Amino acid sequence: MNALQNHLKNMHLGGAVGNILTQNEKNWVQKVLTDDPGLFDGFANPEDDSIFKTMWHGEFPGKLLTGIAQSYLLNNDPETKLTGDAFAEKLKAVQQPDGYLGPWKTDVRYEADAAAGSLGKWDTWGQYHCIYGLYRWYQVTGNRSAFETAKRALDNIYDHFIDGGISIAAQNWAECNLAIGHAFALFYEETGDNRYLDAAKRIVDNDWNDEYPDFYSKKTLCCGWLNAALEGRAYYESGQPRWEGLYALETLASLYRITGETKYFQALESLWNGMCKNDRHNTGSFGTGEGATGDPYGAGSETCNTVAWMAFSTEYLKISRDPRVADELELSFFNAALGSLLEGERNFTYMNDSDGSREPALKVLEPHSYKGARDMSCCQANGNRGLSQIAEWALLSDNDSLYLNYYGACELETTVRGGYKMTIKQTTDYPRSGAIKISISTDCPEEVTLFFRIPSWSDNTLLTLNGGLNGGQVTVLDGLNGGQGTVLDGLNGGQVTVLDANGDQVNGWQVKAAPGSYYVVKRVWNRDDEIDLTLDMSPHFWIMDKGNTSKLSVYYGPLLLAFRAVNSINKSTRFDIEEFRGMVCRDGDGLVNFTAPSITGKDVILTDYYTAGKSGDAYVSWVNFKSDELIVHSDKSECPIWCDR
What we know:
The protein is α+β, with helices and mostly antiparallel strands and 645 residues long. The protein is built from 21 helices and 25 strands. Strands 18, 19, 20, 21, 22, 23, 24 and 25 form an eight-stranded mixed β-sheet that branches. Helix 4 (60-75) runs parallel beside helix 18 (378-388) and helix 5 (78-94) packs across helix 7 (123-141). It is globular. Mean pLDDT is 92; it is low at 470-496.
């Protein structure tokens, strides 16, 4: 099955977003080995009982390295390259002679602890993250040593569990440990070694259905995700709905790419749509607390929930090519992911609430840490991966086609078929405004098809090539359906080749593009070609559908708006929805800033969700409004719930 791939070389990320992510890269990523010199002590001395270890101790280096790999793609910073290479070398140095890459003593590794009557260990979970981080570093930088370290660790797991006929679930904590199936599938794609494919299929078909004692429910259960999905049950209705399971679910995408078996795609599609409908919050975060509950209005979502959701969604996007998935990734990035980062651009929060305040993971999860690595917790280690995840979906490739998903100031470097270089530069202050100038530069002499994501929330979108038509008349050939239409009317997202009366390529036109689609342009691109993309940034809403509550969330483009409940501004302040529709951007400390009067006439400043809570202030994003207001509801079968007008 031909899935989209990520051939991005460098984003050259700029603008306000680029500044935020660069500061986190410098303040956290590039300093983590200095700030936490004991990070690898448990790996180097697994028999030393004096080193404190949580059950998920083994995940920390791998989560960090995955974020480092993605961060390197943002700007190719040499210091980040040095940091990633140092991580790879340290993991190689602490790997045991048999390939084991974890922090646990010999007599409690893998299922031994559970077999002795203890709670068990998150052993293959921690190694999965290390293997994945090493593998991604190899893919991004070509560091072959990182790949070999990862392969030795995976082979050790194969020898123990697959050759040994032992279920991954025998370790307990199967929702975590089953993630290793994803690594086996990836390594089959990399090496073609059938052992890895057999392992991945066995884990999904068998181990997912093996029972184990669940710590949280105090019941014996199995995850059963594949069967549940094929039966039409949502993730929260499966045997095990915790967030950690989303990494195991990525195995479905890999197996569909490899085998083309429709059951894997059907399950993947069912699971993703069910999560989006039932458990994706207004911030773009996933789940309530630490798992799926079937309540999109629940309290907070752990930072790690959102990181897993974005990784899972990225894999589904590559398979489905559904632009609405990219819309969801954008929603998650600009709100939940950015919102996990606190003032100073170093530390991350544990829990992101729709309404409330944010506390640093360093405080809430302090018991996870240990001497020499006082920063370590699951969310602090994972937060940068959520931020830098944009590098995994910003621009995806399929031979001679490119899918442009991320909008913002940047200069995306990639290659197309034949090894030709292509650069897509965006000059814009988006998401402050919807005006985006896209400059194309390539040495490719052949046609390249560009898929421009048209967000579901942008009702009126214009694309203009090289200044437009200048009053000329041209014909548009719909390459997907063989039909014709005028360029000014657009083709509702169809693939187009624009020709004049003589059948020659036209170098200027303007189209109106349909929301929730990819607008597809196929042409031989000139070095000075420019596309002006104008997105409709008028406010849109998500009306809370829960009881008799009169609350809504206000969005400006992809940004969830919130107000700080400080000084004389009460969290229960009510608004007339027409005041939101008429808001105009103003100066302030946020990515965007607006003033809207409450129904009592008090001016309230609304800003983006990230800014509203980053300093620890209380904030509100589910806003009270007059219940007799007329709302234009979008078609939920076609358009996301957060796109009401």
